[in-house]
Amino acid sequence: MVIRGKYCVINGLIKPAEKFKTEFIKNGCSIYEVLRVLNEKPVFIEAHLDRLQGSAHLTAAEAPSFTAIQQGISQLIAANKIDNGNIELVVNTADDWSVRFIPHYWPLPEAYENGVNTMLYKAMRENPNAKIKFTDLRAAVGAFIKQNSIYEAIYVNKNGCITEGSKSNVFFIINNTFYTAPDEQVLPGITRKVVLEILKTYKYPVEYRNVHIDELTDFNAAFITGTSPGVLPIAKINDYRYDVKQKELRNIMSLFETRLFST
């Protein structure tokens, strides 16, 4: 199991990293969160813990207390002396949970400047509102991404509608209006939540509806959101090209970056 740093936290206790075992992650059962750490501080931690509680409710799991998790995260950061990175919280029960630093792959500056390439992928997660470990799906889509040398795979459901990315949420823009899939069909991403708050504050119109693959050419810009990429322009979905310099897109990128570094 890939881990970063010398230590992990298991059930609230600091342990050597080698004590974390693959079997701690139960396919189709474990709920989890990936949080970004900036300057030794977990970003948007309250929103992540709220979503974890939501995942626990949807899966009839019992999660540890917010206080226990926050203390575990603080211990992890202090023990490893890592200022910036990603940490993964995995919960099976209130008495069976862990936190560890994992390798992070934050996009390079040129990705934000030029956008990234993506491709459509026919898949749909079970219970999409809950963040559950599905290792088989993750492995399959990971191989697809690597084989096609793309940044992200965009999930398409059986009706030919775009839902979300394999590790991100998706937005489209046309005529100053932002489009994203209905909440009930996607994982409610934390970065997506922040972007939606920004859009509301600055009075941008938002439509929560499915975008069909036949509509891809109707939009002039698109982007993905996630813990690692933040707000990242899409240059291509399959052979469809988008304007990575589009005014509203660039404005949202700037506003999100300000919010990210001010938390």
TrEMBL record:
Its cofactor is pyridoxal 5'-phosphate. It catalyses: L-isoleucine + 2-oxoglutarate = (S)-3-methyl-2-oxopentanoate + L-glutamate; L-valine + 2-oxoglutarate = 3-methyl-2-oxobutanoate + L-glutamate; L-leucine + 2-oxoglutarate = 4-methyl-2-oxopentanoate + L-glutamate. InterPro entries: Aminotrans_IV, Aminotrans_IV_CS, Aminotransferase-like, BCAT-like_C, BCAT-like_N, Class-IV_PLP-Dep_Aminotrnsfr. GO terms for biological process: carboxylic acid biosynthetic process. It is an enzyme of class 2 (transferase). The keyword tRNA-binding does not apply. GO terms for cellular component: cytosol. Keywords: Aminotransferase, Pyridoxal phosphate, Transferase. Pathway: Amino-acid biosynthesis; L-valine biosynthesis; L-valine from pyruvate: step 4/4; Amino-acid biosynthesis; L-isoleucine biosynthesis; L-isoleucine from 2-oxobutanoate: step 4/4; Amino-acid biosynthesis; L-leucine biosynthesis; L-leucine from 3-methyl-2-oxobutanoate: step 4/4. Belongs to the class-IV pyridoxal-phosphate-dependent aminotransferase family. This is branched-chain-amino-acid transaminase. The gene is dat.
